[in-house]
Amino acid sequence: MRRNRNVKIVATLGPASSDKATIRALYEAGADVFRLNMSHGSHDEQAARHALIREVEAETGRPIAILADLQGPKLRVGTFAAGAVELEEGRAFRLDLDPADGDDDRVCLPHPEIFAALEPGARLLVNDGKIVLKVVGCAADHADCTVVVGGVISNRKGVNVPDVVLPLRALSDKDRADLEFVCELGVDWLALSFVQRPEDVEEARTLARGRAAVLAKIEKPSAVNAFDAIAEVSDGVMVARGDLGVELPVHAVPPIQKRLVRRARAMAKPVIVATQMLESMIESPMPTRAEVSDVATAIYEGADAVMLSAESAAGNYPVEAVRTMHNVAQSVEGDVTYRQVIAAFRGYPRSTVADGIVAAAREIAESTDIKAICCFTESGTTPIKVARERPHLPIVALSPSANTLRRLCLVWGVSCVATGPVDRFKSAVVSAARAALDLGIATEADQIVVTAGVPFNVPGTTNILRVAPCDERLIYRAEAE
After folding, report:
1. How much is the pLDDT for 293?
2. Sheet strands (E) in 193-264
């Protein structure tokens, strides 16, 4: 099965989508990547979902990517003697390290690292920003605040600290245990929460030891500010709009999304746009018009993938949500404006031989009657660079590495095909032509562009481009030589 769209769809699995029949239905409806949310479910439950995905993969004969999303540190207040209190605007309220139950005047915030970083004027956002506190004075064990936006605060509500970089690592003890578990399980991507600085990503990469690609979730203002440095050490990024919309004014999120998607593309880093894309489909079989426009906007911007969270994990219509996203993608990509918008942004530097090869491949393919750009790859770098060019014809990645092909399932426009090891460029051309024929991309009368690196099976050596025929007789002749 080859998708007749370029953007990829990430579907989160959960209580509504943990049986094999539903996972198969999600794949057939258009899911390219399955997300395991490590904030919910036991290791046994996640292992069972992983096994079912791999069963579906074996049955369909096409690679499927699995992304494990690590929870990250959770900052929460303690408990109240009365279970909850009402905070009125303008009143004083203290957060401290005292573990005693809270009251109308104070509550425990059991995170000394927060107090170490706070400064007067910093904001504390409680319960997804529904309550806003402003720090007027602080010490190592407490912060005296003024209530800027009031409301009811109850036991163990979450706290966001948008105005300072916290001396917290992105990986909690739970995250480290989860990371090791999912890497041994065999996931393809790790999504890292609570990223504030590039060192957070580097720690995860060290622990992963190449067993999974690492994707940085951009969900904090500090991550937006350090985006280039974070993306440079990441294999991909996610614009996680949920927490961004809490820690930043909601009206600031759309331009940030557009800017980060473009920057990720320029850096050849796969980028996912996530959170509340079809939120109403948790309970309704039809999305709102605004949600459809939101998905379409991400596609017009050139995102590699769009993601469903609760819609597919816990909603009443998981398959319908994936199908809706698929239909929106097809509609957008069939619009002449889409091609114009995508082609308008190619203003990034090309500084390597590989950059030049893939740019030339797109130019040749788009100026002649070429049917596909076929890339032989060991590490996946070449197809990702080709995808950065956003060509208007299919990209086919061929590799002997199942891990590489699975990771490429997240990348814009790439169809993945397993092939045996090759040691000659002629063999690569033969395999590419067969793949194009088998996928229905080309006929024997057509031509394809083939890129590869010599010597073979050495990452980062893309240095050859050839225009090749798909004629079956020429394939046989090449095989006989």
Report:
1. 97
2. 213-218, 236-240
Longest dimension (CA), the chain: 85
Q: Where are the beta strands (DSSP E) in 90-235?
A: 92-96, 106-108, 123-126, 131-139, 142-149, 151-154, 159-160, 189-192, 213-218
Report the alpha-carbon distance of residue 381 to residue 391 in Å, rounded.
16
Take residue 154 and report the two structure tokens written for it.
Answer: 């109850």
Q: SS3 of 74, please?
A: coil
User: Out of 3.30.70.270, 3.20.20.60, 3.40.190.10, 3.20.20.140, which CATH number does the structure's domain 8-72+169-334 have?
Assistant: 3.20.20.60
The residues annotated as belonging to the active site are: 35, 76, 217, 275
**What's the predicted TM-score (pTM) here?**
0.93
Mean pLDDT value of segment 353-378: 91
E-state strands within 70-150: 84-87, 92-96, 106-108, 123-126, 131-139, 142-149
Q: Where in the chain is the domain with CATH 2.40.33.10?
A: 84-160
Residues 6+ apart with CB under 8 A from 428: 376, 398, 422, 450, 452, 456
pLDDT in tens, 179-194: 999 999 999 999 999 9
- What is the C-alpha separation between 430 and 438, in angstroms, rounded? 12
* CATH of region 353-480: 3.40.1380.20
The answer regarding whether domain 84-160 maps to CATH 3.40.50.150 reads: no
SS3 of residue 41 by DSSP: coil
Q: Where in the chain is the domain with CATH 3.20.20.60?
A: 8-72+169-334
Sheet containing 142-149: give its strands across: 106-108, 92-96, 142-149, 131-139, 123-126, 159-160
CA distances for 479 relative to 3, 425, 435, angstroms: 30, 12, 15
Phi, psi of 375 (to 5 degrees): -120, 125
Range(s) for CATH 3.40.1380.20 in the chain? 353-480
**How far lies 325's CA from each of 33, 229, 292, 320, 377, in Å?**
13, 31, 8, 9, 29
Contacts for 434-441: CB closer than 8 Å, 24+ residues apart: 434/475, 435/374, 435/396, 435/398, 436/371, 436/372, 436/374, 436/396, 436/470, 437/470, 437/472, 439/2, 439/394, 439/396, 439/415, 440/2, 441/2, 441/371, 441/372, 441/394, 441/396, 441/415
Residues 99 and 108 sit within 8 Å (Cβ to Cβ): yes
Q: What is the pLDDT of residues 225-251, one digit of tens each?
A: 999 999 999 999 999 998 899 999 999
Give the up-direction half-sphere exposure of residue 181: CA atoms within 13 A in the CB hemisphere. 19
